[in-house]
Write a structure and sequence with these properties.
The protein is mainly β and 375 residues long. 10% of the residues lie in helices and 41% in strands. It has two domains: 3-56, no CATH class; 63-374, Neuraminidase (6 Propeller).
């Protein structure tokens, strides 16, 4: 780190020791510390140096959760996203403190279910409406949303995306005008603001789920339309390896224990990656949680969110996400308060859940999207 930026950080201490004190502050405390002086602000803004120094000191990674919620009284396939009926939050999972973000959509109509991705300390949120498509990017350091255009030719909705290192991967979707399922895939380099066309997926997929794990990107499930027009549900997944630039088909990925919304064309399921090596999923229309056995490549039951089995109910929804070494689950239902649970997977057969008391969500009952990123 440039010493000129931190020369007055702690005048009574050498810069090296002062910086070691700074990087040990929790994320939320560093945000407060940046208000002390210009030197503190400059030091706290140099996130790459802070991350590098924390790594050299063997300090654990820091995570932040993005969650967007809205009041379902404004229902339908689209929601008119205003600052009143939606709320956009960055949550510190340690302190449970939340920062309210400005509304990125400026009251335009957006899909009721969005997908989001994060890379480094930037958040990416697809914008889909009748007139314009693209990403909104939120830079934590700058504290503002910026517009990012979708790549040429990617005029779809219901695609999936996921962040991995400095890249965002985007694939599949429903092509505008034709309604056909897409096989296209792209990679966005957040450092250079550039898109790269990737090889097409093996199968076209609408509403597939995207996750990154072990430096690979997975497109899971989804559906396409058969020649007769009926939805054809995918029980497969595809794995993309950036090093080889190739997709690998995993034929029975969902069929081995994980339901894939067999009674619905909407096959989007939520998946959570814990410590980049353990993959969890919540069964559609249920609070049952499954974990993928990486050796057998089969799903196994690991308990129920909240600890009690609930009957299958299309009215109650869950989203799960990995937060470092924990799994978080968000429960929401029309007319009911949002509930948040967390569990730390260990060697036990079943997960043990605890409810998290988190304020500020009382008048909202639907989750638009959520994602975790390292900061």
């Amino acid at each position: 780190m440039d010493e000129s930026l931190v020369s007055a950080l702690l005048p009574s201490l050498p810069n090296e020791i002062a910086l070691r004190c700074l990087v040990r502050l929790p994320l939320r405390n560093r945000a407060i510390a940046s208000c002390i002086s210009r030197a503190w602000a400059n030091a706290c803004k140099n996130k790459s140096s802070i991350t590098s120094l924390r790594c050299s000191l063997n300090l654990p990674p820091e995570y932040c959760i993005f969650i967007a919620v809205f009041d379902s009284r404004f229902d339908g396939d689209y929601v008119h996203a205003t600052q009143h009926n939606t709320k956009w939050l960055l949550v510190d999972p340690l302190s449970l403190g939340a920062q309210v973000l400005p509304n990125p959509f400026s009251a335009i109509s957006v899909e009721i279910n969005l997908c989001s991705a994060a890379t480094n300390d930037r958040l990416f949120l697809p914008q889909v409406n009748q007139t314009k498509e693209g990403f909104f990017s939120y830079d934590i350091g700058a504290g503002q949303w910026k517009s990012v255009e979708l790549p040429p030719g990617k005029r779809c909705r219901r695609f999936c995306c996921a962040g991995m290192k400095e890249f965002v991967y985007l694939c599949g979707g429903q092509i505008h005008f034709t309604g056909e399922a897409s096989r296209s895939a792209f990679q966005y380099d957040s450092r250079n603001n550039q898109w790269e066309k990737l090889p097409d997926m093996i199968m076209p997929r609408i509403n597939c789920a995207g996750v990154s794990m072990n430096d690979k990107f997975y497109a899971i499930g989804g559906y396409c339309h058969s020649p007769g027009g009926a939805p054809q549900i995918h029980v497969s997944a595809e794995r993309f390896e950036p090093e080889t630039g190739q997709w690998t088909l995993m034929p029975n990925f969902c069929a081995k224990g994980l339901r894939y919304a067999e009674d619905s064309a909407i096959t989007e399921s939520d998946f959570a990656v814990v410590e980049n090596k353990r993959l969890f999923a919540v069964q559609p229309q249920s609070n049952e949680v499954m974990e993928l056995d990486g050796v057998k490549e089969e799903w196994r039951h690991v308990g129920y969110i909240g600890g009690v089995c609930e009957m299958r109910d299309c009215g109650t929804n869950y989203k799960i996400l990995g937060v470092g070494s924990e799994v978080w689950a968000i429960q929401y239902r029309v007319g009911k308060s949002i509930k948040i649970y967390s569990s730390k997977p260990g060697e036990l057969e079943s997960l043990i859940w605890r409810q998290i008391d988190f304020g500020g969500l009382e008048r909202f009952d639907h989750v638009l999207t959520c994602t975790t990123f390292e900061v």
